[in-house]
Amino acid sequence: MINLIIIWGLIVLFILQPGIAHDGAEAGAALFVNALLPYLLPYIILTQWLLKTPMKSNSKRNWKRYFKAYVLGSFGGFPVGAVTVTEMVKNGELTRRESGYLLAACHAPGPMFIIGFVGTELFGSSIAGWKLLASIHIANIIFFIFTLLLLKKTQPKMEIPQQVSKIKVSNSPLLDALKDSTNVIVLVATTVIFFSSLGNVLTSTILSTFTVDLGITKTILLAIFEMTSGVQSATDHFYTSKLFPFIIAAIISMNGLSIHMQVFVIAKTVNTPLLPYFFSRLWSIITVPVILYFLL
Prior knowledge:
The protein is mostly helical and 296 residues long. The chain has one domain (20-295). 78% of the residues lie in helices and 0% in strands. It has helices at 2-16, 18-52, 62-74, 80-90, 96-105, 111-123, 126-154, 173-209, 214-225, 227-238, 244-254, 257-268, 275-295. The protein is globular, with a radius of gyration of 20 Å. The chain starts with a helix and ends with a helix. Keywords: Membrane, Transmembrane, Transmembrane helix. InterPro entries: MFS_trans_sf (IPR036259). This is Sporulation integral membrane protein YlbJ. The chain crosses the membrane at residues 31-51, 100-120, 132-151, 184-207, 243-267, 274-295.
């Protein structure tokens, strides 16, 4: 019942504010094409291609499998970590329990996005982009180590995943990688455009109903719904503030519903536990800005 009320309420808002909804969707599409697609697509294709290429044998050593997941998943941008972990579960390289913790740790924006877009274009310094990227990975690695210790404590003899015999070996891994990458890109584009439009409509509604600060309200709402739009709004309203780099760090760490929906949809294909992912987002929102403060 509550879901129906929310859905119909949003439909009414979109009908009453078609121009604002259109502007939000247009802004989301522009951000996707200019800030996400060029950085995300090549890495998704290469990662999928590598994961779909037949291997002689999977390593039974935990650290090798975890290292592989972290390297492939954490440096490709959202939601490559989720794609990598779920693909490794399908290949029999990870158990479902392991995938829950790895999904939480192997979740970071791509280096090209942070250094190229955030660092160079927003911060005006690639060095600042490198420091933000380092802050994100330091927070992720600390969380990863803690969760692995917890995993080892609660399960002394960790299950070694075996190759699933029913998995069909691809005869054309590149073509399969292109196909699956297309599905991921469509998912990313859909969520970015929808939540950007939704954020715009809700911002306009709140501003017309209550007397609130435009910059703060718009930035918070857009950051909650769509990370890239939130980053753009923070740049428009807080660029001259001394807190600007830390606001950007917090927004990127929070991710927004758009990215969370991408991760949830992908993780659902192998029923990956999502509780560790939830705690990792809270951890990152708190620690990444603090680490960045000391690095800057």
